[in-house]
Amino acid sequence: METSSLATSAIYDSKTFEPRVGLGRLLSQVKMELVEALDRELAPLDITAAQYVILATLAEGPTGSASGLCKGVSYDPGAMTRMIDRLERKGLVRRVRCPADRRRINLEMTAEGKAVYPQLIESAVTVFNRYLRGFSRDEIAQLETYLKRMLANA
Amino acid sequence: METSSLATSAIYDSKTFEPRVGLGRLLSQVKMELVEALDRELAPLDITAAQYVILATLAEGPTGSASGLCKGVSYDPGAMTRMIDRLERKGLVRRVRCPADRRRINLEMTAEGKAVYPQLIESAVTVFNRYLRGFSRDEIAQLETYLKRMLANA
DNA sequence: TGACAACTATTGTCTAGGCAACTAAGATAT
DNA sequence: ATATCTTAGTTGCCTAGACAATAGTTGTCA
After folding, report:
1. DSSP β-bridge partners for residue A95
2. What average pLDDT does this structure show over B56-82?
3. Phi-psi region of A19 (alpha: psi -120 to 50; beta: other; left: phi over 0)
4. B71 touching A, CB under 8 A?
5. By the 8 A CB rule, do B128 and A23 touch?
6. CA atom of B101 to C1′ atom of C19, Å
7. In whole angstroms, what is the distance from residue B88 CA to residue A51 CA?
8. pLDDT digits over A25-78, tens only?
9. Does the beta-carbon distance from A140 to B5 stay under 8 Å?
10. For labeling, which of A12, B38, B92, B129 is most exposed (least CB within 10 Å)?
11. The pTM is what?
12. How many residue contacts between A and B have a Cβ separation below 8 Å?
């Protein structure tokens, strides 16, 4: 039958599954190392990788409200409130009540936030380039495609 | 010069880097969804994905000590102590002082732990097969290779 | 032997996210 | 207009991991 490499056959079965060396472990490891590396890279700026994600989403996107950010980064509203507290305390971000809808709180980067932002990007680029040494652009595109396919399978 | 697809050229630069759609976001998302899916799958057994990882490492490997587990799953020793507390409270794992080295604590799965373990594997297999629908074995192998190359670049 | 270094596990403290309850504000329907 | 429903953000409580300090144990070496 030669089903072993058909795309439609089940990949794993309980007999042969090896939890310790599999894809899950690799994904966790890579993600963790990337976060740790970015944390170290950003440490001199007193900014964490988690904060970087929020700032980047805020800086690049049109979604200026807190709840928009929550959906964008799949974050709990409560966690987001406190995250914004931290960023506001650091003077990187400002809460601005939306006049049209007074429930909504729009977020703006402060001058200081905008000033450090290029350094954040620089740090992220450094980290990714380090972990992607030896990859061609095609390979990265393919890696991204695989991950997108997994997400589409959700 | 046509350097754009040479493997040795830097992949990203600060001008073109798009933090919101890149590899980091994809990796985080995939990892998170896998964990959430496994959590849901294991919920009826009252076991979390994090606990599954420990149990799997313990069941499959020869590393029976707590500190061995710490290294194996890059876990904090303090966190590991409390993790084992939880597993012990659930009756899945037993602490056994090593007679040869009385600092060391060896871990054994209880009869109950061994009894549920096949169901854990079954759950994990189900989740991975779901997220890998449509993948050939070759594609999975290549995905794993990419991730291993990233780790090797650390 | 005794001082000292290295290792194992535990505990306390801190940080941060998840969940639920709550308040305020807008939207909708009667 | 008012009652009801939905949405946005905040707060309190709980859980869990990270880090640091500690106690007990082993190995080393003078």
Report:
1. A107
2. 87
3. alpha
4. no
5. yes
6. 43
7. 36
8. 999 999 999 999 999 999 999 999 999 999 999 998 776 788 888 888 889 999
9. no
10. B129
11. 0.90
12. 177
d(CA B66, CA A29) in angstroms, rounded, equals: 20
Residue-wise pLDDT for A96-121, tens only, equals 999 999 999 999 999 999 999 999 99
Q: Report the C-alpha gap between B47 and B55 in whole angstroms.
A: 10
> B72 in contact with A at a CB cutoff of 8 Å?
yes
pLDDT of residue B5: 46
Which nucleotide's C1' atom has the smallest distance to the CA of B67?
C8
Beta-carbon contacts of A132 under 8 Å, excluding residues fewer than 6 positions away, are A140, B11, B12, B23, B150, B153
Strand D bases, protein C-beta under 7 A = 7-13, 16-21, 24-27
Q: Are the CB atoms for B118 and B32 separated by under 8 Å?
A: no
Shortest CA gap A80–chain B (Å): 17
Residue with tokens 């490891």: A29
CB contact under 8 A, A147 and B30: yes
> What pLDDT is attached to residue B3?
44
